[in-house]
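Collaborator request log, item 7. Partner lab (contact: R.S.) asked for a structural prediction of ParB/RepB/Spo0J family partition protein to inform their binding assays.
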Amino acid sequence: MNTMTTATETAVAPTIISIQHEDESIALNRLVPSAGNVRRVNTAAGLSELADSIEAHGLIHKLTIRKAKKGKYEVMAGSRRLGALRLLAKEGRLAEDAPIPCTLRQADDATELSLAENVQREAMHVVDEILAYRELAGNGMAPENIAARFGQSVITVRQRLKLAGLAPKVLDVLREDAMSIEQARALAISDSHEEQERVWFEAPSYNRDPRSLRAMLTREHVRSTDRLVRFVGLEAYEAAGGGIVRDLFNEDSGTFLTDQPLLTRLVIEALEQAAEPLKIEGWAWLETSLDASVGYGGGYGRIYPQTRELAEDEQAELSALGESFNEEQAHLEAYDDGDPAIEADEARLVEIERHINAIRNGSKTYDPQEQALAGCIVYLDQFGAAQAGRGYVKTEDREALEHLRRADAREQEDESGGEAPASSAPEPEAGYSAALVEELTAIRTAALRVELANRPTVALAALLYPLVGRIFQSGYTTFDAAVEVSRQRRELAPSIKEPGEARPLAAWQAMKEAWGDTLPGQPADLWTWLLEQPTDKLLELLAYVTAANLNGVKIKNDQSRSRLDNAEQVAVAVSLDMRQHWTADATFLNRLSKAGIAEVLDEAGCSAQVVRAIEKVAKAEAVAEAETQLAGKGWLPLPMRTKGQEALPEASA
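Returned to partner:
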C-alpha cells in the first residue's frame, strides 16, 4: 500500500481549531472588570448612550468571562458593556442581580483574548450607518424615537438623516472613501441631487474643500444675518411662502433664504408702511429706498428744523418728567441683581424717556414754505433698521429754495426800514485813496487779531461761522467771513464705489443729522446762536466741522504730500484702527485681480495650497473663497494702516 502523501494533499489538509467555551447567564453583581482588558482609552466615552441602546435592544453581544475568586467572574472582553449595565443598575433601570448572557472561557490569557476581540471588530461604514437611519425613518420611526432607542441626541439623528438625503452618486463616492464626511456635510446644505452632483463632479479637485462647496451651493441665496432679513424678520418671510435652507452642521451662520425677489418685495412693502405716518407732515414728496447711501449719494440739499422756545406748560411737564426719570433710576440702582421688579421699572424709564423726546421734538418745526420744496426719504440703514430722513431738497428745487430765502431776507430788510444789517462793515470815508484805506484797515485787522486771540469763545464762533455755514447751508447762501477758510470741502461718497456699504460713511452721516437737528434752521440766526453757546458746546461743534474739512484722500498724481502727511499725523494722534470700521469683504476683493487676491491671502497668512488654488478657479469663486478665508483675521491693506501698524493684529501676526 502506498503510504506517501503528495505535496498538494498536504497543502489543502484542513487545520482544526479547538474552541473551548460555554454559554451561561451570570448575575450582574457577580461580574467584575478584568485587569487584562486592553482597552484603556475612552472606556467611559458614550457610556450613557450605550446604556440606552442596551435598554432598548438588549445585550446584543455577550460578555466574555472567566472564573475568579470568591464566586466572581472576570469580564475579559466587554468592559464598556459591563460599565453600561452597571449604569443601568445604578439608575434603577436594571436589577443588580439581573442575569447577563456570557461566554465562559477557560484559562485563556485575558490580555490576548481582549486584544483579539477589539482587533477583530470593525466599525460600520458611515454610509451604511446613515442608510440604516434612513430605513428606520422610512418605516415610520420619528427622529426623537430613534435618538432615544440608540442613545443619540436628536440633532445627531437629524444630521445623519440629512446625509442620507444625498444623491446616490454622491453616497457612492463617500462609500469609496473618496470624499470626507465634512465634504458630504457641505453638500447636504442643498436638497437638490442635481446641484450636489454638479458642484462635486464639475468642481476641480483642489476646490472641493467644505467651505468652497458650501459657498457654491449658497451663492444665489441670502444669509439670514443680512440687513434685509433683519428688517423683515425670518418668520414673516416664511409666512409669505419664502423658502429656507438650513445647514444642520453649521447652525450659527447656516440659514439661507432662497427667494430673493420675495424678500425684496416684503422689505419695500414694510418700508412703505413705515412711511405712512410721514404723509401728514406736509412734505412735497415722500420716497422709500433700500439703499443706505441714498441720503448722501443722491446730490440732495437739506433744510433743517427750527427750534422754538417751550411753552410754560411744556417746560413744567418736561421738568416733572425729568424728576420722575431720576427717581426711577435711583430705584433701579437700589435693586439687587435678578430682582423681578427691575423689568417693570426699566419699562417705566423707557416710557418717561419717550415722553421727554416727544416734547423736545415737538418744539422743532420746519418753515412751511421751505418744507413745501423738500421731501422725506425712508430708507433701510446698514444695520437693518428703517430710518426717516427729513428735509431733502432735490437738485431741481434748490434754486427755488435759494430764491425763497433771498426774498425772506429782502422782506426782513424792508421791515427794518431799509437800514443796513448791523453786521455790515462801514463804508470807507470819502476822499481817502484806495491805498490808504487798505493800509488803515490792515492796521485795524492786526489789532482785531490781537483782541480776537484773547477772546477764545468769540474766536471759536468766528471760526465756526463759515465752517458750519458751508456744510449745512451749502448751495443756498454765500458765506464770506472775516475768518477765511478757503479750502474746498472734500465729498467722500463720490470716491467710494458702494458708499451704502461703507460703515464709517454711515456713522459720519448720522453725526451730521444729529447736529443738523440742533442748529438753527435759518442762516440769519446762526451767528446769534453761536454767540449764545457755552464753550464746551462750541468745542464739540468745532471738532465736527473741523473733521468735515479733513481730506486724507489720495488721488492720481496727487502732489499734496504735506496734506497726506498731516492726515497720517491725525490718524496716529487718534489711534485710528480701521479694523473697527472695515472688513476685507467681497466689495473690496472684487476690485482686485485673481493675482491680487492671491497676494492678499498670502500676506494674511493663508496656506500656500489655498493661495495656489485661488489662481486656478473662476473669479467669482476666488472672491467667495477669499472672503471666507479672511473672515476674522483682521487683515488691512496698506492704504488703510496707520503708521507703525502691521497688516494683521499682533495676536494673529
